[in-house]
Amino acid sequence: MWFKNLQLYRLRAWQDSAEALSTHLSRLPLQSCGASDMQRSGWVPPNDEDFVYPLASHFLICLGTEKKLLPASVIAQHTRQRAEEFEQTRGYKPGRKQLKDLKEATTDELLPRAFAVQRKTYAWIDQKGGWLVVDSANVARAEEVLEHLRKCAVEFTATPVRTQLSPASAMTRWLTDDAPPTAFTIDQDCELRARQDERMKVRYAHHALDTADIQQHVKGGKEVARLALTWAQKISFMLDDTLQIKRLSPLDILTERTQGNDDAFASDFALMTAELGHLIPDLIEALDGLDEPS
Questions:
Q1: Are residues 191 and 129 in the same domain?
Q2: Distances from the Cα of 179 to the Cα of 172, 173, 185, 228, 240, angstroms
């Protein structure tokens, strides 16, 4: 079970063992939505067993979210019907406040009949390396994981990773100089964005990144906002200017190692933590190290 997207946090002051963390998480398990609930969140076992999947100094946890599917278009349609009935019985159209009340009443009526779907957001805690990594491309969902850890009285400090050199500056230099950092190679996807107007952008997909062409865009005021990279000929990913890692994918040289194993979940997690435990520091080093208080 490889993560697909990485939200990186610097982890400090972590004290809990796997057993203690599991006890904390058990206080806030995922419960199904009630008749009047639009959404609920809580912890679920990452591997159908305990609330924490431990491997040496690595912990895997999972935040589950159940959400009712109630499209705005459906609410609007039923609200219009109620508004028409209101006009027919009273002889005048409902005002703004009355329309709001009709919409709220419609939502309350439809909510118990709405279907519910679940999603899972995994997080990896690396005590030894000092990282907390959330598998999500959405910052808000990653923050939700941290928020629920705090709700369970887990004591820790986690801050978004910041580097001395901005990813945009570094990626622009790597691409224009055709000189990626050691252990990394540049692939065939990138996005350049104007510094003054983010709406102005140029995207390359599965396309040779011609250095001269890129340099013309940079001279015109653009910088690299996203760049596809491969690390150590093992893992490919997309790095963006906020230091998010997206579209992470292990290459065949890694996936072949776990083929045929009886416990693919355990094998994948062990391999992922081992490889990302090297990739993340290599990337931080390529960006001139962490920008954090001494």
A1: no
A2: 10, 8, 9, 14, 18
In terms of Cβ atoms closer than 10 Å to its own Cβ (0-12, 13-18, 19+), residue 140 is exposed
Find out whether 116 and 47 touch, Cβ atoms under 8 Å.
no
* 60/143 same-domain check: yes
Residue 47 lies in a domain: yes
In this structure, is residue 294 part of a structural domain? no
Range of the structural domain that residue 128 is part of: 7-70+114-160
Domain count along the chain = 3
| Average pLDDT of the residues in 265-272 | 93
Rounded CA gap, 85 and 116, in Å? 30
Sheet arrangement for strand 222-231: 201-204, 184-194, 222-231, 235-240, 245-250
Residue 257 has pLDDT above 80, yes or no: no
Q: What is the DSSP string of 113-137?
A: GSEEEEEEEEEEEETTTTEEEE--S
* 26-61 tens-digit pLDDT: 999 999 888 778 889 999 999 978 999 999 999 999
Whether residues 22 and 39 share a domain: the answer is yes
Q: Read off the pLDDT of residues 65-121 as tens digits, 9 standing for 90 and up.
A: 998 887 888 888 888 888 888 888 888 888 889 889 888 888 888 877 777 889 999
Report the distance separating Cα 20 and Cα 247, nearest Å: 33
- Distance from chain centroid for Cα 292: 22
Cβ contact 169:223 at 8 Å: yes
- Domain assignment present for residue 179? The answer is yes
pTM comes to: 0.86
Same domain, yes or no: 192 and 264: yes
Distance (Å, whole) CA 68 – CA 44? 18
Instruction: Clarify whether residues 258 and 240 are in a common domain.
Output: yes
Question: Both tokens of residue 6?
Answer: 């990485």
